[in-house]
Amino acid sequence: EADIYQTPRYLVIGTGKKITLECSQTMGHDKMYWYQQDPGMELHLIHYSYGVNSTEKGDLSSESTVSRIRTEHFPLTLESARPSHTSQYLCASSASRGDYGYTFGSGTRLTVV
Amino acid sequence: KNQVEQSPQSLIILEGKNCTLQCNYTVSPFSNLRWYKQDTGRGPVSLTIMTFSENTKSNGRYTATLDADTKQSSLHITASQLSDSASYICVVSDRGSTLGRLYFGRGTQLTVWP
Fold it and tell me: Min CA distance, B40 vs chain A (Å)?
């Protein structure tokens, strides 16, 4: 079944640690996105990709980085986690044609202590 | 400034009752408007998507309306169920870029009581 997967679902990590949030989709979508969402607030775009080897920063400044080496995989990395990075991170993908519907993953709830 | 405003911020209703959620937007140019349901701790799931020429679309007990002239949309939920408890997010896309940029509302938190 076509879907988008994020791991881990929950992560508690100490300040200064390096972390990578995984995102994979099986729908063959060329566009992928990372959003950050705090409780009760709207989603903010932090990174997006049009395809392999294409990555751009979104509207919200983020100290994270992303890579797109394979179509189906769009990992997000924080080199040195800080408490201010505590948030929910949502990955999404969409096709370039059709109704432009977005499919979201279940998210990673990150807590930096 | 492109914005999406939702009301009410939160809503509590009894199981079996109907409710209507509102979305006003200032996004221009307009491409489409989507309603998503987001359960606590999960990613948003698409309910409906409407383009400029559509003024109503249904998905089971969910019916969305769109008035592109007044830039308003509503999501009507009929015969509510406990599983409808979630945040409902209105998302508007512009057609001004190849990205089809999305503008998100903050959502309406719906709680359905037995």
Answer: 10
* Interface residue B52 vs chain A (CB under 8 A): no
Using alpha carbons, list the distances in angstroms from residue B25 to A49, B21, B32, B42: 26, 14, 11, 25
Lowest mean pLDDT among A81-85, A100-104, B29-33, B45-49: A100-104
Give backbone dihedrals phi and psi of A60, rounded to 5 degrees, phi first: -95, 125
Taking CB atoms and an 8 Å limit, are A101 and B42 in contact across chains? no
Measured distance CA(A113)–CA(B21) in Å, rounded: 37
Q: Nearest chain A residue to B38 by CA: give it.
A: A106
Q: Which member of B41, B93, B104 has the closest CB to residue A100?
A: B93
Instruction: Say what the pLDDT of residue B95 is.
Output: 72
The partner residue sitting opposite B43, judged by closest CB among A31, A94, A104, is A104
For residues B20 and A65, give the distance between their C-alpha atoms in angstroms, rounded to a whole number: 40
Distance from CA of B5 to the nearest CA of A (A): 10
Q: pLDDT by residue (tens digit) across A48-93?
A: 998 999 999 988 878 899 999 999 999 999 999 999 999 999 999 9
A 32-91 residues with CB below 8 A of B? 40-45, 48, 50, 88, 90-91
Residue of A104, A63, A93, A33 lying closest to B87 (CA atoms): A104
Residue A46 CB partners (closer than 8 Å, separation 6+): A34, A35, A36, A57, A58, A59, A60, A62, A64
- Going by pLDDT thresholds of 50, 70 and 90, the confidence category of residue B93 is confident
